[in-house]
Amino acid sequence: MSEAPKAVVLLSGGLDSTTVLAIAKRQGFTCYALTFNYGQRHKFELEAARKVAESQGVAEHIIANIDWRLFGGSALTDNIEVPKGRDAETIDQQGIPVTYVPARNTVFLSFALAWAEVVGASHIFIGVNAIDYSGYPDCRPEYIAAFQAMADLATKSGVEGRQKLQIHTPLIEMSKAEIVQKGLELGVDYALTMSCYDPSADGLPCGHCDACRLRLNGFEAAGSRDPLTYQ
């Protein structure tokens, strides 16, 4: 019996990345979950990621520490107010929001690339989405294609022809409702997840930031109820 292929899965602890982990597991991959503590104000997602990784039975879960507060420039890592109360149309039309963290997915994928080479994984899974998202430039298909091309040139194993890396983006063309439906089909426990950009001191999601609004709209459109308790 051949050994299951290995995959590094970027896991924030949110709805999208948790669904991606479940997809990778269903596809037969041995999953290595990678989470980042980057100085984000919504640090409750780190505990969510731990719970998700444990529930999904990953081979290993690493939480990497990077302090983006050194640079700031984002409402998630700086003293900038998180936008709230915006509807889906407003989120879509107002360009790149202040919750964008400069170069975040580039750094995350670079770490994933390094770990993949070390553990001998030829696959990386990331939960980027180009439909129901907040306008982030590093969630677009052309960005992923560019990183894929770079990754083929950037590693020892790639240059030697021993390991061809593939970046998987199973959610990239799915609506938030479709993502929720897919996760429910796979048995994902969304009560373990955290999506809010600005939770309360005791970890309750605000219900009004872009991430909460997109999440709640997704559950509603999917004909399901979000299991989280909101402020």
What is the element layout, followed by pairings?
Blueprint: E1 6-10, H1 15-26, E2 30-37, H2 44-56, E3 60-65, H3 88-93, H4 104-119, E4 123-125, H5 141-154, H6 156-159, E5 166-168, H7 176-185, H8 210-221
Parallel strand pairs: 1-2, 1-4, 2-3, 4-5
Helix pairs in contact: 1-7, 7-8
Give a verbal description of the structure.
- By secondary structure, the chain is an alpha/beta fold.
- It has a single domain, classed as Rossmann fold (3-Layer(aba) Sandwich).
- The protein is about 40% helix and about 10% strand.
- The chain has 8 helices and 5 strands.
- A 5-stranded parallel beta sheet has the order 3-2-1-4-5, with helices on both faces.
- Helix 7 packs across helix 8.
- The longest helix is centred in the middle third of the chain and has 16 residues.
- The radius of gyration is 17 Å and the shape is globular.
- The termini are far apart.
Alpha carbon gap, first and last residue: 50 Å
CATH superfamily: HUPs
Category by helix and strand content: alpha/beta
CATH architectural name: 3-Layer(aba) Sandwich
As laid out across the biggest beta sheet, the strand order is 3-2-1-4-5
Low-pLDDT runs: none
Q: What is the name of the CATH class?
A: Alpha Beta
Number of E-type strands: 5
Strand content: 5-15%
